[in-house]
Amino acid sequence: MPPSSRPHFTSMPDLALRELGGAVVWSNDDLFAEAQNLIKPGDAEYQPHTFGHKGQVYDGWETRRRRAQGVDQAIVRLGVPGIIYGVVVDTAWFKGNYPPYISVEGAAVEGFPSIDELVTTAQWTTLVERSAVDGDTKNPFRVDSKERFTHVRLTMHPDGGIARFRVHGRGVPDPAFLGSGRLDLAALENGGMITACSNMFYSSPNNLLMPGRARVMGEGWETSRRRDDGNDWVQVRLAGEGHVSLVELDTSYFLGNAPGAASIRGRRGDGEWMEILPRTHLQPDTRHRFVVECPEPIDEARMDVFPDGGMARLRLFGSLTDDARQTIEKRWVSGELAD
Prior knowledge:
Layout: E1 23-27, E2 51-52, E3 55-56, E4 61-62, E5 72-90, E6 101-107, H1 115-121, E7 125-132, E8 138-142, E9 149-157, E10 161-162, E11 164-171, E12 183-184, E13 193-197, E14 221-222, E15 232-250, E16 261-267, E17 274-281, E18 287-291, E19 298-306, E20 310-311, E21 313-320, H2 322-334
Antiparallel strand pairs: 1-5, 2-3, 4-10, 5-8, 5-9, 5-11, 6-7, 6-9, 12-21, 13-15, 14-20, 15-18, 15-19, 15-21, 16-17, 16-19
């Protein structure tokens, strides 16, 4: 689509929004106000004369005053990677402490990169050149790029405060995931059910199968801290016998208490467990997706986390076998839906 025919970009989805899985994964400084506030939904709020130990409390990102040359930066992982049509740098309520200039860059990094990879080795493309901004204002900047980005880096020259950062664009999925999952076989709304778990000290494992994305850490499953050599696990009876083709392990909001790794196994009836996803390293506060092969149909799955921690959501996308589908349809027609 040529730039002249593109719609006004602010009408497009905010790809960085927290509800879509976006996260501020790194910032070099947020002494006065947390960088995570940048991608909160809604406009920033302000209450005068609300002082904490570090000064006035701001609903935004604010760094300390620089006494040496340099810049302050924050890296945002987009919840939905895609083409960016424009960004909005909102300095609401920052009147004497906003940055005089900003710039924005984008990077396309596949998989689940570490912070070190993003900071030191990622290749960044300029989306918005160093530009002046006004205080207490929604400052829009058009982006003319046809590339797909997974991360954006916001830079303040040299320091200051920004309330919200919106990244408007069109989502572009990785083709590897297209056609790799149709039905979440584990979802509660599809008939999935937790059958057993090792630990539910902080919150119920049923949260793993709830619809939608978790909004806070308490909406996931979290175990107590292990002090032995074991690991925690949960078993799920699927909606029906089927083939799993895409696994999603979402550690959103679990920052210092996410599992270090996880694996998925499956079985049919009382048969032997078979590996679907081998033990795989996980990142905190991240929505992980893995294309898998499940040559044999299963009706039960087991997730092991190593050694403990919290998981927001577990999704097992795939397809029901013909027999399972017919069984479900017969139960619906007969009204005998219980096993």
